[in-house]
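Notes from hallway chat w/ T.B., transcribed later so I don't forget. T.B. wanted the structure written out for a chain they're using in a teaching module, and asked if we could keep both sequence and structure tokens in one place. Agreed to drop them here.
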Amino acid sequence: MSDFRFSPIKSEAELRKAIEYTHIACFQLCQLALGRYLPVAGNIGIFCHDDDEFIFLTALREKLTDRNDNWNQKYFRLHESITIPARGDLPETTYTYLYIRRPDPKSPQIGDVDFVIDSEEHRRLQSLAELGERMNGIDLLYRPDLDMIRLSRPDIDALPYLTTKTMAENVAAALE
């Protein structure tokens, strides 16, 4: 028996349930922290919790994505985008890239979503994070290696990241 909400994921249907859950939880955290929903960058990540799950999910990712179209050899373009319909006030959202993360015993979360904010708000939130501030009960962590801000709360097992670029912009910059 697993201590994780979805792990081990053993089918494409279970992966899609984990994606939908991650989507909803990350949008909820943005709403709690910022008082609004943000546009997504275009990628969603699912976290593995053991080596067998990682082997299974990377094989499934090979089926769902173009192995030659990846950014940082980490985010793989989906053959068919995943669109999650609007639910209540949650907007319809489309993901074009999938990330499957290796097991990390320090990270029990289900997955993550990157959201886009403008540069000015990013700088303001980065300053708060560097001071160790919280925002509406949400922990802020600045990741200088990624130039992203992570939102987290212990009772929500998904991680939204805030960035200033969409996945399409990252891919375009990498091709220059």
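Follow-up for T.B.: The domain at 12-175 is CATH 3.10.180.10 (2,3-Dihydroxybiphenyl 1,2-Dioxygenase; domain 1). Might be a good example for the class.
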